[in-house]
Fold:
Amino acid sequence: MEPINIITSKAVPLPLPNIDTDQIIPKQFLKRIERTGYGEFLFFDWRYDLDTPDHVEERKDFVLNKSEYKGAEILIAEKNFGCGSSREHAAWAINQYGFRAVIAPTFADIFFSNAGKNGIVLARLTEEEVQTLIERCTKNPEHKITINLEKQTVTDELGFNATFEIDPFRKYCLLNGLDDIGLTLRHEESLDKFEEKHNKDFWSAPKAVTA
Amino acid sequence: MSTTPKTLFEKVWQQHIVAEPQGEPTILYIDLHLVHEVTSPQAFDGLRMAGRKIRRPDRTIATVDHNVPTTSAYDRLHIVDQVSAAQVNALRKNCAEFGVEFFDVQDSSQGIVHMIGPELGATKPGMTIVCGDSHTSTHGAFGALAFGIGTSEVEHVMATQTLPQSKPKTFRITVDGELPFGVTAKDIILDIIGKIGTDGATGHVIEYSGSAIRSLSMEGRMTICNMSIEAGARAGMIAPDETTFAYLMGRRFSPTGKAWDEAIAHWKTLPTDEGAVFDRELHIDAATLAPAVTWGTSPGMHATIDGTVPSLDDAKTEADRKSFERAYEYMDLKPGTPMEEIKIDTVFLGSCTNGRIEDLRAAAAIVKGHHIATKIRAMVVPGSQAVKRQAEEEGLDEVFKSAGFEWREPGCSMCLGMNPDILQPGERCASTSNRNFEGRQGRGGRTHLVSPEMAAVAAITGHFTDIRKWKQTEGAKN
Structure:
């Protein structure tokens, strides 16, 4: 995972609540066994004209297709972003499209976890703060926002200045690009000890152990 | 020594703490890892690249469900969609390579991953259970702490049998009283989601309690816990009791003899202690509930069958207004339309929410002696091979077939449209599944979530129908 700290970029406003992971990456792309190549399928059903052969025609009215937003690294949405299915493909698609951060009032739990494991910064701001940013980025697609993970701030050149909360450990992992499995294996001794005791609790074994 | 009263969740959480490093998430031990074809290939690849093994293959169980066709045994063994076939094959190979017990497509124990855990008796009270699927919350019906995870976490559990987890908050939802006729577990959970919102329980583990919950069978309890995720909850749990023990007794992976007695003694220590404090509480009077039908594109957008599609004035916030407007358009519905006037094209009876034997029995009892309306496509997809066998022994397949339903092979089927069972654009479906998101059952498809009973009666009349009234008139001849 790449370490991440300061992101300064224009931002794509997607002013809808409850954007579920079925919209972020529709089910047909979950059949792939690769971990890469999902960026082109991000928001597929909203992004492409589904009535054209092979769905290759981009829908001009969808924000992601507007040339002025190309290259944006920040996505802004309303509450409960990433709800529904646990598919990590949603985080992969967002990341591989080129987004490095999402700003919203709230995020669904599983998506929140998946995003962290893929080096995506999720900044929770208040509803009002999010609306302000949505307005500014809608009015001016070139409007730049800066997310500073170390300082936990979101700022812009028009004086917007908000702070967001983040779990200190999650922040530490994002800043340093740390791999979770390696971190957990620092506790291997505790794990061995726990397991030795826990193995005797036969009621916790999935497959029957007859005492 | 006095001890602080604890909740069911707290007890299970505490019994699985491996380490609590300062300033970091708790390292939580995972008792059972369920694996399926869609969210595992990249995790197995990750293990291979790092030269890691699965730490506890004996705590790992795999099956295929999302991608498999449900049309015939032949179609399942010869999957036409090459991308799906490759994914199923990848799981087959990965399980062989890493030593994981795999219930393949025609195995007598195959089924939707959340069906087979309980059926095998692998799911038990007090366990921690994860799976790369959000509906893992289903297993909480047994008093297990069970939650969905992403693929990076799947790999993490494979490698370490643990997960770093921040402790969720607790939320008790008490449903007291007797359920009115025609009201099912599905209607309870849809009502809860409507009341608290699809993000109402974010960051929380819900414990469902109260006399209405206690009176439910394990099947009903699984329906409720299954849709906890639709309220944003990390997990849903129900304390184990005699109903739980009766369900588990004699199952393939259940303890026997002296071990069974000891297991029960342990399980009886799990329910929430008198006086334990929850972060949030909600009380619902069962007598106020009615059969529910969703009208929009989020499980919280539902009405009772005697109600109407809500108007914009019913939207609580500006965000809700926007969602309502979008949903009217997508669902092609006008505010104020009586729910009973909405005509349907398709009926889907199945899924990890409502594909169990009790669901099929309830629907068959309504269908018996009737025929589906003209132009309706109706299918029954048993959630597992075990459910299919049981239903066939009871003759339910004949009841459905003679009423005009298709009788299918087990799998996720039309719940998520990853296999050939999909809706066509504009097609309107009465579905017993769990999500009515845009395009969930096929792009452009319009999903209305209902109970198995309500799906069955809609199949007969061709439109949503109040099961309470219908049963008194038409249904009386059964």
User: Anything to note?
Assistant: Chain B touches chain A through 92 residues (CB under 8 Å). The first helix of chain B runs from residue 8 to 14. Chain B has a mean pLDDT of 96.
